[in-house]
Amino acid sequence: MFLAGTSIKSHMQRVKGFGELICNFFVPRKNPLPKADFSNVRPSKDTVWAIIPTYKTPKTTQTLVEQIHTYNPDINVLLVDDHTPSENSQNINKLRKKARLKPWLEVIRTPVNSFRAGASNFGLDYLSKLKRQPDYVICMDDDAVIEKDTANILLNTLASRPLTAAVCGNVCVANKNKNLLTRLQGLEYHNFNVSRLMDEGFIYGPLVVHGLMAAFSYKVIQEVGAFTPQHLIEDYDLTAKLKHQGYHVGYASSSIVWTHVPETFGELWRQRVRWHYGGLFVLRNYLKFPLAILPDIIGHLFYIAIFSLVIVSFAIGKNYTIPFVLLITLAITSLINVVISYIFNLYTLNYYKEKDTIDTIIRSLIIFELGYSTLLSLVLLGSYFYYGYTQAVKPALQKLPLSGTIVRVFDRIFKSMGLTAFWGTR
């Protein structure tokens, strides 16, 4: 009798837990933020390293290195030169000379170009050989721009959450006002930040701990095998890997880091091909653990369902009359969805600190963001086709006579459409 009661109680607890997860999808619970005074959990000196992989180092990296040390003197900086060609090594050489005089700065060089994931792992391997290994590492891009408390807030948010292995911050667009395309990306990045805030209480945390700047538990990142070499979207892959091992990830909204987004259509297309095409490999690798990538699964299923519905409607439209009730139902449902999304986007615009009158007009008119989202949908659709080609069609073609010629033709066709597996990996 007692065992039966215990079993029922245990079952009810599981049901309650599942119900809370579902509720958190719609109304996420809030994680407590660290106190304004971070000194009570501040990591001790020499236990934090910032790893910055760099290739053809930009001038802004020198400013970034100085900012890190000025704002946080107890953080050591490790620059990983990802085998920059000699003709582009002027800036990294200056930093290498600087490192000889600064005990808090190290510059190392990969033996071959390893892309971002490989260079980051090279840095982690270097730290593993030190007498005193770090408690935390901050992995960041070489063109990031930080504020005074950016790193401090990240570290202390991470240190104050026992089950959390990684924390990223709030990404802002430094070149937002350059043109219409950058403004649309600024609004999009604001939506990303809102999504991360909403995902804070959902299962294991935000979908992606972005690679622009994130703090990690050094012990945990080594435990899970660090970054996957040659991966196109290594930050998403590592996030899923951490969740798969049972760890949580977090978001510190008051930790501000600035980035520069693509200013031309071609640059944006290449970036998003990498994001979408690389993201499909993450989906494939973690489908057996869907909780790590659940929001992405839902998004892809929704997109495929809508696209399939459009295709089917064209295919049977001439021979089939849609019932009036169904037509009205679809129209009303679509209208409700548009209205709710519009109101929500206008509401969240109030929290977009960088907005100006032009941004408000762009969001209010809808048409610009609608065109932008349509463009991104085309990139995603192309990524689906390219993934199918590289994973199924291409291997089959390579078994045929004259396969080399056939494959080269298809590769050129996809490349002419901006679809390639290597754009943007550096």
**How many domains, in number, for the residues?**
3
Count of alpha/pi helices: 14
DSSP strand count: 8
Rounded average pLDDT = 87
Reported by name, the CATH topology of the largest domain is Spore Coat Polysaccharide Biosynthesis Protein SpsA, Chain A
**Subunit organisation of the chains:** single chain
Supply the CATH class of the largest domain: Alpha Beta
Order of helices and strands: HEHEHEHEEHEHEHHEHHHHHH
Strand order of the largest sheet: 3-2-1-4-7-6-8-5
CATH architecture of the largest domain, by name, is Alpha-Beta Complex
For the termini, the CA-CA separation is 63 Å
CATH H-level homologous superfamily name of the largest domain: Spore Coat Polysaccharide Biosynthesis Protein SpsA, Chain A
Biggest β-sheet, characterized? 8 strands, mixed
Overview of the molecule:
The chain has 426 residues and is of the alpha/beta class. It folds into three domains: 1-28; 38-293, Spore Coat Polysaccharide Biosynthesis Protein SpsA, Chain A (Alpha-Beta Complex); 295-416, no CATH class. It has helices at residues 2-26, 60-71, 90-99, 115-128, 150-159, 180-199, 218-223, 234-244, 265-286, 294-316, 324-348, 357-365, 367-397, 403-416; strands at 48-54, 75-81, 105-109, 136-140, 145-146, 164-173, 213-217, 248-259. β2, α3 and β3 form a beta-alpha-beta unit. The longest helix has 31 residues, at 367-397. The protein is globular, with a radius of gyration of 24 Å. Mean pLDDT is 87; it is low at 31-46.
Short description:
The chain has three domains: 1-28; 38-293, Spore Coat Polysaccharide Biosynthesis Protein SpsA, Chain A (Alpha-Beta Complex), CATH 3.90.550.10; 295-416, no CATH class. Helix content is 54%, strand content 12%. It has helices spanning 2-26, 60-71, 90-99, 115-128, 150-159, 180-199, 218-223, 234-244, 265-286, 294-316, 324-348, 357-365, 367-397, 403-416; strands at residues 48-54, 75-81, 105-109, 136-140, 145-146, 164-173, 213-217, 248-259.
